[in-house]
Amino acid sequence: MSAADVPGADAAGLLERVDRGRYRSRSPEATAALGGCLGGVLRAGDLVILSGDLGAGKTRFTGGVSAALGDVRPVTSPTFTIMAVHDSGRMPLYHFDLYRLDDPEQLDDVGIFDALEGEGACLVEWGERFADELGDDRLDLAFRREEGRDADGEPARLVVATALGARSAHLLDDFDARVRALLAP
Question: What CATH number has the domain spanning 3-183?
Answer without folding.
Answer: 3.40.50.300
